[in-house]
Amino acid sequence: MGSIGFPLNSVILSCATNSTKKPKGLRPSSRIGPKMTLATPTTFGFSNLLETFTVNVQRAESRPLNVPLIAPFTIANSRLDKVENVAIRVELSNGCVGWGEAPILPHVTAEDQPTAMVKAREACGFLLRTRGMTLSEVLGDIGGLLPGYEFASVRAGVEMALIDAVATSIGVPLWRLFGGASNTITTDITIPIVSAAEAAKLASKYCEQGFKTLKLKVGKNLNSDIEVLQAIRAVHPDCFFILDANEGYSSSEAIQVLEKLYEVGVSPVLFEQPVHRDDWEGLGYVTRIARERYGVSVAADESCRSIVDVKKIVQESLANVINIKLAKVGVVGALEIIEVARESGLDLMIGGMVESRLAMGFSGHLAAGLGCFKFIDLDTPLLLSEDPVLEGYEVSGAVYKFKNTRGHGGFLHWDNIAW
């Protein structure tokens, strides 16, 4: 497929290194030409790294990553009882290791776990055959091997692992690689579709833990959704609401929800994917009415699975916010979409499927480093009953803090993962 042909002019990646040696894997280039002196900050543009970092992979593997949930995760169009994802490990010839994760969410991601395992093995086989290619060329060929939305989750996992290995090679944390705007983010927390009593219990717990924004899954039963919202408001009166219908409403039902909430004095800060992904007319209608009557922004999630979708949303004013999920578009695709959305004045949200701290940590590094996301929805590791990831970012309630360690900072005990 060749090199990646999109500009990342506004996504400037900066990093600092204490090494007096040129990072392994970087080709000499008049476009970079860093002066590597002790304790002197050195700036790399990601577009430069794409063309100047030479990728030589000596080991690439994928294995199932199965983790139980604390409780079933129910949304409008699916139910998940445990995480069945795919972990990817890439080791470069310089010994640096990168980690990735392909999240699988039934009825949302195109891949199931068996399909993801097959495609991940194919991608790992390709990586082992590559020698002396630039990062741009490798990522471009991975995009050709795992094209479009059909294999986006696996593509994201492979891209994560490669970029993590590169960041580790040049000695910088991912959040610095992605711009260094901040080393912290504050996430919301999700309440799945449950009874009003259970929702109130969860909201009370999250209030005590310091979560200010609750993302509520709705869209299966309009009247039950209203009851749940009122129950949550009773125990957490100062929280902010994000409503996520996961395509569950018709456009008229979505407006009816906003009307009923307005009558009881509840106004969400965001209404995510109120209608079916292909109901463009309905999405535009809800967006217009929600903003004009109630001052509520609408986010496109399932409706936004490619750069083509983003351009349609922009041209026809179909949503106010774009939800970026690496499992929908990959890392490379996400950076492209972020560029277009920012230039068009759309707000940005970052979210995920149901990932461990491996994939969620990568998304968090991206969000912290770029610093351009109005809504942060990276909470699913908090819903798992086990944490397979060692080290990595620190969690304090709703706040994630990313360290100064190289790359992702987190890793798996690879030999302990059954396959």
Automatic annotation (TrEMBL):
Residue stretches making up the Mandelate racemase/muconate lactonizing enzyme C-terminal domain: 196-290
Keyword tags: Isomerase, Magnesium, Metal-binding
Active site, per annotation: 217 (proton acceptor), 325 (proton acceptor)
Molecular-function GO term, any one: racemase and epimerase activity, acting on amino acids and derivatives
Binding locations of Mg(2+): 244, 272, 301
Cofactor-binding details, from the entry: Binds 1 Mg(2+) ion per subunit.
EC number: 5.1.1.-
Any one Pfam family match given in the protein's UniProt record, by short name: MR_MLE_N
Cofactor(s) of this protein: Mg(2+)
Transmembrane segments: none
Name of the top EC class for this enzyme: isomerase
InterPro entries according to UniProt: Dipeptide_epimerase, Enolase-like_C_sf, Enolase-like_N, Enolase_C-like, Mandelate_racemase_C, Mandelate_racemase_N_dom
The family this protein is said to belong to: Belongs to the mandelate racemase/muconate lactonizing enzyme family.
Name used for this protein in its record: Dipeptide epimerase
Biological source species: Rubus argutus (Southern blackberry)
